[in-house]
Structure formats: C-alpha cells, structure tokens
Amino acid sequence: MLFPVLRGFQTAPSWRESSIWRGYGLARREWGNVILTKRRYYGTGLRKGAYLMANRERVRELARTAIDGGTPLAWFERCYQEAAGDTGFIPWVDLVPNPALIEWVESDTTAISSGTNIVVVGCGLGDNAEAIASRGAKVTAFDISPTAIDWCKTRFPRSRVRYAAADATDPPASWRGSFDLAVEIYTLQVLPPEIQERAQAGVASLLKVGGKLLSICRGREDNSEQPADYRRPLTRGELERYARFGLKVVSFDDFLDNETPPVRRFRALFRRETARS
Ligand SMILES: C[S@@+](CC[C@H](N)C(=O)[O-])C[C@H]1O[C@@H](n2cnc3c(N)ncnc32)[C@H](O)[C@@H]1O
Questions:
Q1: Distance 76 CA to ligand 1 centre (A)
Q2: Whose CA is nearest to atom 25 of ligand 1?
Q3: What is the β-pairing status of strands 138-143 and 179-185?
Q4: pLDDT of residue 175
Q5: Please, which residues have CB within 8 angstroms of residue 251's CB and are 6 or more apart in sequence?
Q6: Which one, 145, 155, 227, 251, has the greatest CB density within 10 A?
C-alpha cells in the first residue's frame, strides 16, 4: 500500500534512513536547511500562512499574465527568476525527492541500476534527479527554465546529473529514442491543456522501444470540471493519451497523499511498444 509509506515520509526517521538517501548527503544536509529556511522566511502560524498565500497568488498572476499574453510557457522562467534564490517562493519546491517516486524506486529494485539511462522531465530544483542518480543511473535532467537549471548546478556542484535547459514539447533531436526510463512529475499538470499533448509526444519520443515512463500527477475524475488554476489535475484519460504516441500502460495507482487535506494523485508506468511517436 502506498498511503502508509507516504504517511511515514514526514514522521519516521527510519524512512529517511532508507537506501535512497544513502549517497544523497547534500539533500540530507539540506533537510536541516529546509527547517532553517522556513523559520527565516515564514516565521510561524499566521505569518507563515500569509507568506505562502502571497507567493501562491503571485505565481498564479505570473501564470495568468503569460497565458493571456500568448506565451504560456514563459512564466516558469519568470517564476524562478523572481524567486531570486528563495526556495520558499516557489510553491512546488520541497527540497526533498517526491515520496511516490521513492516508494516506486524502492518497490522495484530492478527499475534503476548503474547503466540505466534516465531522463527527468521538468526537473525543477533537481531533488528527484539527484535521488535517482544516487542509485548509480546515468541521469539527464532538463527544465524549460535556464534559471532553474543554473540553480540545480549551484545546489549540487559535484552532481553526476547532466542538467540542461530544454523544452519537453520540442526536445533536442539527439535525445530522441535514447532513454530507458523517463520520469515526469507534476510537469504535465501545470501545462495548459492545448500544450499537454505536445509535451506527451515529446516525452514519449525520448524513450527507446521497451523504455518506460513514470508519470506522477494530481488526479481528477473523468468528465469533471477543470479547476481554473495553473495546477490542473489530470483525468486518467488525459494521462493515458500517451497511447497515441506508442506507450502502453503497465501499472496505474490512484491514491491520496499525506498532505493536509490529502490530495488525489495518479502514478502511472508506461512502456514504449513501438518506434512510432
Ligand atoms: C510543478 S514544477 C515540478 C518540478 C519537479 N518535477 C518537482 O516535482 O518538484 C514543473 C516544472 O516543469 C518545468 N516545465 C514547465 N514546462 C516545461 C516544458 N515544456 N519543458 C520542460 N520543463 C517544463 C517548470 O519550469 C517547473 O520546473
């Protein structure tokens, strides 16, 4: 069961001592910094809440302005620029790897090994990429925001990850068909619906035949209304549009995470069946 493991994420030191953290010294040291950072910027109680709400509203405004101005992907770079090194400004930054990714990695020990060629899509500040690389895999991680990529390199100066600025809707031709595993977390869900499919085509094209895609996102019921927000939970049907680009579903988890209140998430594993994309 996924949920009990996720619950343990915030509380049980034994989980944080699990194998994925070994060799991930920077992130573990940063765990302390997260707390310091939050104290420094957020204060406590009401001040913390007001700080987070103001940041979220500013990020929404950046998204709205870019979308209304016809440049729907431009706000990510603006967001990282405006953060100016303050990780607390960016709503999705936790400074730890995604718990549903870690749970998947630990449940399938064959998924990642030395020699596995992995691409992390929309890598943000690099925590997921670093956690995967600590397993010995060869990792390329990209984000549309050059500022986010520079930030990753500053955070992890001795990283084995190859960081690059690139666009999932039009990835570099030299990357196509070259990865055993693609990991996409919370990126598809922040793209406007008209761009999502192009991004799915781009991500699918990165895989070798037989390669896999792990995708984690917010989930919503089929035919339910799309919330007017930069975060757009996907329906199962939207996520499974990868089938149009030669990918077949291997497994699909629909679960509630450990946030308060809990958030519905999908975690899907796909396999590329055909060379066509
Ligand atoms: C919600 S954040 C998630 C970041 C990271 N995956 C995580 O789970 O913390 C989405 C990320 O995708 C990046 N992004 C958005 N559109 C992209 C695109 N077309 N190609 C590559 N990255 C993109 C954004 O800059 C941002 O860092």
A1: 8
A2: 76
A3: unpaired
A4: 98
A5: 268, 269
A6: 145
> Which tokens go with 71?
């440049």
In short, whether 140's Cβ falls inside 6 Å of ligand 1 is no
Structure tokens at 57: 């509203």
18 CB near ligand 1 (under 6 Å): no
Q: How many CB atoms lie within 10 A of CB 131?
A: 24
Of 193, 169, 2, 32, nearest to 98 by C-alpha is 2
- The alpha carbon of 145 and the centre of ligand 1 are apart by a number of angstroms equal to 8
pLDDT of amino acid 277:
56
Distance 151 CA to ligand 1 centre (A): 14
> Rounded to an integer, what distance in angstroms lies between the CA atom of residue 34 and that of residue 37?
5
- CATH for 192: 3.40.50.150
Q: Is the CB of 117 under 6 A from ligand 1?
A: no
pLDDT per position as a tens digit, 35-70: 334 334 445 566 677 878 888 899 999 999 999 999
Q: Indicate if ligand 1 lies below 6 Å from the C-beta of 255.
A: no
Q: Which domain holds residue 193?
A: 1-277
Residue 190 CA to ligand 1 centre (angstroms): 8
Atom of ligand 1 nearest to the CA of 145: 25
Number of domains in the chain: 1
